[in-house]
Write a structure and sequence with these properties.
The protein is of the alpha+beta class. The protein contains ten helices and eleven strands. A hairpin with an 8-residue loop joins strand 1 and strand 2.
Length: 374
């Protein structure tokens, strides 16, 4: 085995796969899984065992997207121990490339294009070093997929030397709704029954990054991180911009919730000495359909929430309490400002009528059903 040569092959295929644009949620995701399929089909092992390489469709997917599943069975001893290798074939969008977007998936041409841009010094240094390959998806995670494919290939060369089995799943829609992985799970269970696979571990070669400037450590993460997405729907009361104290602005409430929860380490979780990243808002927006001088009636905000152990049941009371605190702070602030406004305009201050109410969806549903029936 010549690892320098294999390294070169990994690099070359990573670049080739990057050239196949496959932005999540676009029909081109299919081109990416096809490319992976073709690469695997070319292996001698799958010519001999074509039934061990196939597409797994995402059920009821409007774009008809799929994932690629491949496995090799070791022939040394009779171990059924199986390792599953997973990678995703889609990427995030390319609009952040701005004026050079057309080159986002052309790693060979990007360095020249970058010369046209104003770049920060560290990017200029990286560019000049020649040590980097650029392009949407090269890092996240087409190189990772290429590594897995080449590992699988090496093990497939002589199955008589392999004790146990290897499964590769190259999934689509990872940057979106995880349709690819969700589609592959039942297939893995089917293989468990059909082939008697005893799953030992999953290996995911998605990217990892330095944890701080100048961090030279290369990390291998063990275990899993859960993701929850608490979402808040804020209902205010409309007011005309000329008479704002008559209403309560749902954007004000939503921004207070962001202030409370965003980057707040009190909401991070620790397990075995490792702490999760704090929550970060993924969207904040009101639902006013057009411009008007009326304030919005509703808005919403949702957060990415990493967990190590918490289930939604444990997390919900915590974020509800946070939202209540945020909501109350808005009302207090409004009353303080209204008092000043009243004083300066020489009329009597009266406490504003707002009360902070934070309900879970289940509580809201229960109240509506009690009022309106099913
Ligand atoms: Zn990724």
């Amino acid at each position: 085995m010549n690892w320098t040569e294999i390294g070169q092959q990994i690099r070359d295929f990573a670049v080739e796969l990057t050239q196949v644009k496959s932005v999540v949620g676009s029909p081109q995701e299919l081109d990416s899984t096809k490319k992976v399929m073709e690469r695997l089909e070319a292996m001698a092992y799958f010519k001999q065992h074509p039934d061990r390489l196939y597409y797994v469709d995402i059920a009821d997917d409007q774009l008809g997207r799929n994932s690629v599943l491949a496995y090799i069975k070791g022939e040394k001893g009779d171990s059924q121990k199986t390792v599953v290798m997973i990678g995703h074939t889609d990427t995030v969008g390319t609009s952040d490339y701005g004026e050079i977007e057309a080159y986002a998936t052309r790693p060979d041409e990007l360095p020249e294009q970058y010369q046209k841009l104003i770049l920060p010094q560290d990017a200029i240094d990286d560019l000049a070093s020649g040590d980097y390959i650029f392009g949407r998806g090269i890092f996240d995670m087409k190189t990772g997929v290429s590594i897995l494919i080449h590992l699988l290939e090496q093990f497939s060369l002589d199955p008589s030397q392999l004790e146990g089995n290897l499964v590769l799943a190259a999934v689509s829609d990872e940057e979106g709704n995880s349709g690819g992985m969700l589609g592959v799970v039942p297939e893995l269970i089917r293989l468990q029954q059909k082939e008697g696979f005893e799953y030992q571990a999953m290996v995911d070669t998605d990217y990892s990054a330095p944890r701080f400037d100048g961090d030279e450590t290369r990390y291998l993460y063990v275990g899993t991180v859960g993701k929850l997405m608490p979402s808040f729907f804020c209902v205010g009361s409309e007011a005309h911009g000329g008479d704002p104290f008559r209403g309560i602005d749902p954007n004000h409430i939503a921004s207070a919730i962001v202030q409370e929860i965003n980057f707040n380490m009190d909401y991070a979780e620790e397990a075995e000495g490792e702490t999760t990243v704090p929550p970060i808002s993924l969207r904040l927006q009101d639902l006013k359909p057009e411009y008007s001088v009326q304030t919005a009636k509703t808005s919403y905000v949702y957060f990415n929430f990493s967990t190590h152990t918490s289930t939604p049941d444990a997390m919900l009371p915590k974020v509800k309490a946070g939202a209540k605190k945020a909501f109350e702070s808005v009302i207090d602030q409004l009353n303080r400002q209204y008092r000043i406004y009243a004083e300066r305009n020489h009329f009597e201050f009266e406490e504003l009528p707002w009360k902070a109410r934070v309900l879970s969806y289940a509580e809201l549903l229960e109240q509506v059903m009690a009022e309106r029936g099913d």
